[in-house]
Amino acid sequence: MKRYPIILSGLGALTAATVLVLSFAAGASVEVTSDPSGAHVVLNGRAAGSTPLRLSGVSRGHHNLLLTLPGFADHSTQFTVSLRAHLAHLFGGQPIRIHAVLSPLPPGFLRVLSEPAGAQVYLDDEWVGTTPVRLTQVAPGKHCLRLSLEGYEPWVGDVAVAAGQEVEVRAALRSRFVAYYLGRLKENPGDLVAYTELVHHLVVAGDFAAALQHIEAGLQVALAAPDTSEKHRFFDELARIYTRQYEYPLETREKTIRPQILALVEKALQKYPNSPALLRTHRQMKAH
Questions:
Q1: Which helix (H) or strand (E) is 264 found in, with range?
Q2: Long-range pairs for 136-139 at CB < 8 Å and ≥24 separation?
């Protein structure tokens, strides 16, 4: 069979069979750059690396290219690898060059609040202020937010900020003190000292809802316990709270714990009407 050569400019003469074999045996070379560099490159839906990037063995046909970089709009483009590009790669020719100029996205806004306030705020490990704080130049994308306050466990979370929009984060910080006594109660649910310390701390901190939960649970433990100094101390704590022997800076007319404590004590009296500690506490409250 007679073979006819194919003449390609700059590549010499090749037989048709040789061209066919070469065209399927190797792919083209594609060089991808971006301004700024470091963009993530996705070729036909699959991650390929970061710019500047040289891709080899790219098959003939149409391809989709996507470049992403935090703080910049996604850049998508299409390119076609021809037979000539295949052959140019085989014979040391120039690669296909694709350069993308990425457009910066407008910054987002982030408002960070904490309970209690005064926590140090770190965004992507960089200090940015003290709660409450509002940040106005946050790059769009996902960020790591960390709050730190003496006496409290660190608060860490991820936050996604959209271009031109504001996100608000409210962090409830967990007291190391509370965590310690909760751990003690987990090991020993009958630890009245832990209940007393927890209730005192939570009431002074203004967390009345949590305090009431521990008062109710502590009452059940105390009423079933023998007559000990720990038991008397728990009931004395309830009386001190009710008679305002502590300062409650967060207490208001609408936010108070005293009526709920009295209601819990009177409910307990219905079940334990002859408890000396309970009767003494109730008398102290009613005399106030």
A1: helix 258-271
A2: 136/107, 136/109, 137/107, 138/107, 138/108, 138/109, 138/110, 139/70, 139/71, 139/105, 139/107, 139/108
Please tell me the predicted confidence (pLDDT) of residue 256: 82
CA distance 262 to 98: 76
- Mean predicted confidence (pLDDT) in 266-288: 90
Question: What one-letter code names the amino acid at 56?
Answer: S
Q: Which of 11-20, 60-69, 182-191, 200-209 is predicted with the least confidence, judged by mean pLDDT?
A: 11-20
CB atoms within 10 A of CB 143: 20
Rounded CA separation 118/126 (Å): 17
> What end-to-end distance do the CA atoms of the chain give, in Å?
117
pLDDT for residue 92: 58
Which candidate, 258, 254, 231, 255, places its Cα nearest to that of 245?
258
Does the pTM surpass 0.90? The reply is no
Pick the CATH number of 176-287 from 1.10.10, 3.40.1350, 3.40.1000, 1.25.40: 1.25.40
Tell me the CATH number of domain 110-172, given options 2.60.40.3500, 2.60.40.1120, 3.40.980.10, 1.10.1530.10. 2.60.40.1120
CATH classification number, 5-101, choose in 3.30.70, 1.20.1740, 1.10.30, 2.60.40: 2.60.40
pLDDT digits (tens, 9 = 90+) for 42-66: 999 999 999 999 998 888 899 999 9
Q: Where in the chain is the domain with CATH 2.60.40.1120?
A: 110-172
Sign of CA dihedral 173, 175, 176, 180: negative
Tell me the two tokens of residue 100. Answer: 């993308």
Q: Is pLDDT above 90 for 9?
A: no
Residue 287 binned pLDDT confidence (cut-offs 50, 70, 90) = confident
